Fold this protein.
Amino acid sequence: MKVGYKKTKIGEIPVDWEIDELKKITSYVDYRGKTPPKVDQGIFLVTAKNIRSGRIDYERSKEYVPTELYEEIMSRGKPLLGDVLITTEAPFGEVAYIDNENIALAQRIIKYRGFDKIIRNDFLRYTFLSDYFQNSLDRESTGSTVKGIKGSRLHKLNILIPPLQEQKKIAKILITVDEKIAIITTKIQATESIKKGLMQRLLTQGIGHTKFKESKLGRIPESWDVVNFEELLSDERNALGYGILQPGTGVEDGVPMLRTVDLTETGLVPNTKVIKVTHEMSKQFSKTVLKDGDIILSVMGTLGRTVLVQEEWIGWNVNRALAVIRLNDKMINKYLIQYFKSPIFKNIIRTQSLGSAQMRINLSELRIYPVPLPSKKEQKEIADILFSVDDKLEVLQNKKSAYQDLKKGLMQQLLTGKVRVKIPANA
C-alpha cells in the first residue's frame, strides 16, 4: 500500500479522504411520478433528453409547462443554481448541473444538492461523470435493452469525499479544461456554419458566374451541366458496388474491412480497431477491394458519410453498409466528396429514404441522382476551398479530442486520489 493511503471497500484512497453513501451527504429530490401537462409556451421543462455530457442542452428538446402550475409541479423542491441532475433511464446515467433556475424538471431525473461543509456541488457533478461512479451505476442498473436504476439503489452508492479545499481545487482544474473544450466547440460550430454557407453558394452558383439558368436542381451557372450520377462512373464493371455481406466477427490474420462506425468524414475514427475478414471472403467481393482514388459512401444506417480512400487502405475491403465508387475523367473525386457532404445531396437522400423500413441509399437509384457538373478547373477550385475549411475543422477537432482525453485522464487520477493536488497552507 502507498504511504499516505488506506484500504477501503472500494480500494485504496488517501488517508484524509472519506467514503459515504450519496444519501448521507446530499439532499435530493426524485421527480418521478405524474407527468406534468405540456403547453406551447411557459416554463422550460428539462427532460432526460436535455441532459448530456455534464450540461443541459436546451436545443435537443423543447417542452414547456404552464407557468401558473409551476409551484405545484415543483412542489417537491425547486432547482437552485449548481444543483446536480442525473437521469435514471432513457437515457441512463447522464449528468448536468443547473445553470438557470427558471426551469421545471421532468420525470426520470433526480436532483442532488451537496450538504455544506461535506461536499461541493461542482465536485459532485464531476464525481457523477467519473468512471468509478458510472461503473457503480452500471452494476446497480436493471434491464437489458433499456437500462435504468431505482432511486433507492442510486442513493446508496458510495462517494469518495476529499477535504473541501481539495474538492474546490479539483473542480477548478476540471472546469478550466471544460471551458477550453467549450471555446473550441464554439469555434467548430462557427466554422461548420461557414462551410455550410460556402457549400450552398459554391455548389449552386460556382465561382465568378454572372449568367444562370434553371435546371432540375434549381438555378445553376449557365455553363454547368446536370448529369445523372451513372454518367460519372468509370467504364469498368466494378465502378459502383456494395461491400461484403455477412462478414462475421473477424479473424486475426486477414484483410482489414471498413465499416461505417470506423469512419469519420476525414478518415478513421481514432483508436478504432478495424476488423479483418479472410482473404477468401475478400476475393469473393473483389469489386470493392479498395484502390487509389476510390470514394467510400455510407449507404445504410448513417447515410451519406463520405471519405476518399487513403494510401494505407489500398487493398482493404468494406462491408455491406458502404459502397465503393470509381469515377471517370469527367469529375474530380474531391469535388464529388464535397457534393456528397453538402446539404443539397443530403436532402436528396433523406427524401429518397422516407418511408423505407431501413434507412438506406439504393445504388440503382443513386445511378440516376442528378449531379451538377462544372468544368474540371472549377471543380478543383471549389473542392480546394471546401477542403481548406475541412483542414481547419480537423485541426479544431483534434484539439478538442486532446482536451477531452486530458479531462478523462485528470478525472481518473484526481477524483480517485491517485494524484493529489497541492493546497496552499493559507487556503
Notes: DSSP finds eleven helices and 24 strands in the chain. The first strand starts at residue 5 and ends at 8.
